[in-house]
């Protein structure tokens, strides 16, 4: 079995942790945060506490929470964040950066 991913790099550059990415994604969903929280069996404030991960707060966003979030929202983007972070090699990222730089330089006319 093969899996094809429509992959756009950049998630891990903008969001250093998967939890921070999920936190941003919650606000980008069609459903309001309070509906997502209810579907996850949390109050909106408890979900916010889990996602903010304040060091003095015992509420933590867990792997079970991530699975529940994906199940109730259908948002698989956090999984792609993990793929980018752990499965896409830095070499591939560097090659893509160099190709982009080359394309940019080709667009510049040399006098």
Strand content: under 5%
Estimated structural class? mainly alpha
Average pLDDT, rounded to a whole number, is: 87
Low-pLDDT windows of residues: none
Radius of gyration: 18 Å
| Helix share, percent | 55-70%
- What is the number of strand segments? 0
Shape: elongated
Q: In terms of quaternary structure, what is this?
A: single chain
Features:
single chain, 111 residues, mainly alpha, 7 helices, 0% strand
Can you walk through the features of this model?
The chain is mainly alpha-helical and 111 residues long. It has 7 helices and no strands. Helix 2 (18-28) packs antiparallel against helix 6 (77-86) and helix 3 packs across helix 4 (44-52). The longest helix is centred in the last third of the chain and has 17 residues, at 90-106. The N and C termini lie far apart (52 Å). The model has no long low-confidence stretch (mean pLDDT 87).
Q: What's the helix and strand layout?
A:
Blueprint: H1 11-14, H2 18-28, H3 33-39, H4 44-52, H5 63-73, H6 77-86, H7 90-106
Helix pairs in contact: 2-6, 3-4
């Amino acid at each position: 079995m093969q899996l094809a991913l429509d992959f756009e790099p950049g998630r891990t550059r903008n969001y250093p942790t998967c939890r921070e990415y999920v936190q941003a994604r919650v606000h980008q969903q069609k459903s309001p945060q309070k509906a997502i929280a209810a579907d996850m069996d949390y109050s909106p404030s408890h979900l916010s506490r889990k996602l903010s991960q304040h060091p003095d707060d015992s509420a933590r966003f867990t792997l079970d929470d991530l699975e529940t979030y994906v199940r109730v929202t259908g948002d698989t983007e956090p999984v792609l964040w993990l793929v980018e972070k752990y499965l896409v090699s830095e070499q591939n990222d560097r090659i893509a950066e160099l190709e982009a730089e080359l394309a940019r330089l080709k667009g510049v006319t040399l006098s």
